[in-house]
Amino acid sequence: MTDFAWTRDQFLLPDGVIYLDGNSLGPMPKAAPDRVARVLQPEWRDMLIGGWVKAGWHMMPETLGDRIAALIGAEPGHVVVGDTLSIKVYQALAAALALRPERRVILSDTGNFPSDLYMAEGLARTLGHGTRLVTVAPEDVAEALTDEVAVLMLTEVDYRTGRRHDVAALTARAHEVSALTVWDLAHSFGAVPVDLAAANVDFAAGCTYKYINAGPGAPAFIYVAPRHAEKADTALQGWQGHDAPFAFDPAYRPASKVARMRVGTPPVLQLAALDAALDVWDQVDIHDVRARSIALSERFIAGVEETCPQLRLASPRDPERRGSQVSFHFEHGYAAMQALIARGVVGDFRAPDIMRFGLTPLYIGEAEVDRAVEILAEIMKDRLWDNPDYKVKAIVT
């Protein structure tokens, strides 16, 4: 049983702040500063370049990959950490397309995160020969899977509404037509139970700065199923993915298994912060997190709908069909969110009119949910959002 009083005590949060934006950037684990400082000194200070071996820096992408694998139902040795989520999606998609050379269609949905679609469009343009991205409404994905589709590329949990795809069912449906799957777990990892091996997923990628709390810009990860591991094409042939990177061979020879998906030099400071964040997850059962997340989400929805009739639920009503966030439509959503933030309730906004709230049980409980509802109700009742200062959009929303 997960001790949520203990997990709450593992994070640094400003006094007076109700943080409902962990679905965008998680708060700092208390252990992170010391773990990062250890890299600075004594490791970097005393070991200098020797830290790559003596401190284990070089192997961190694999060792942390195995820690993540245990949390997402992946086989050991088939997850590696590094680079950004966009890069990892690109790698996974390129590898999947290379395994289906006779097909040209990448299928996704219109609600997918734009960066994933940008990556797919760019890769299709580079490959040419009729390779193209096709998007359909989320509810039409299964029907759109035909024998023309090479790869189904989806994000499990929609970044705007929290709507959740059925990974196992859609993967099975894709395999029925001999298509491969690439799943983006950005809003799944640390929010809902994930079991990649059981779902027979081909490729997956995810980030670590949201629910995992590894810090801004924390590296992403990629999963390659064992059946593809020795065949996966490495479209981005970085030196760290070479079979012998320090041989400096002018000819590229991919490393074995998922290590071939390494690209550039590991970001050691960020990996150290991830290491500290994962220490918290060693004490957490994701099924407990999921149950508590649903309870908090239901409480939040009930409170908002009772007191804020101006807001309309954008997330699925059924908690089993959404992730660990709740979203509402409101015409003046951006200004209302700024009014909330000014009063210590931090959520965020997604165009055109969506107010997003992350319900993250590791550090949020019933008291925070109830107080957030009270403050939101005051803002709506007194039209406190109707302030010119709140309507000036910042570069990050």
UniProtKB/TrEMBL annotation:
Alphabetically ordered keywords of this record: Hydrolase, Pyridine nucleotide biosynthesis, Pyridoxal phosphate
Catalytic activity: L-kynurenine + H2O = anthranilate + L-alanine + H(+); 3-hydroxy-L-kynurenine + H2O = 3-hydroxyanthranilate + L-alanine + H(+)
List of residues that carry N6-(pyridoxal phosphate)lysine: 210
Single biological process term from Gene Ontology: L-kynurenine catabolic process
Keyword Hydrolase annotated: yes
Pathway: Amino-acid degradation; L-kynurenine degradation; L-alanine and anthranilate from L-kynurenine: step 1/1; Cofactor biosynthesis; NAD(+) biosynthesis; quinolinate from L-kynurenine: step 2/3
CC cofactor: pyridoxal 5'-phosphate
GO function terms (MF aspect): kynureninase activity; pyridoxal phosphate binding
CC terms in the record's Gene Ontology section: cytoplasm
Pfam families in alphabetical order: KYNU_C (PF22580)
Keyword Hydrolase: yes
Domain of life of the organism encoding this protein: Bacteria
EC number(s) recorded for this UniProt protein: 3.7.1.3
Binding site for pyridoxal 5'-phosphate: 85-86, 113-116, 155, 184, 187, 209, 239, 265
NCBIfam families hit by this protein: kynureninase
Assembly and interaction partners: Homodimer.
Function: Catalyzes the cleavage of L-kynurenine (L-Kyn) and L-3-hydroxykynurenine (L-3OHKyn) into anthranilic acid (AA) and 3-hydroxyanthranilic acid (3-OHAA), respectively.
Annotated PANTHER family: KYNURENINASE
HAMAP family: Kynureninase (MF_01970)
Family: Belongs to the kynureninase family.
Stated name of the protein: Kynureninase
Species annotation: Tropicimonas isoalkanivorans
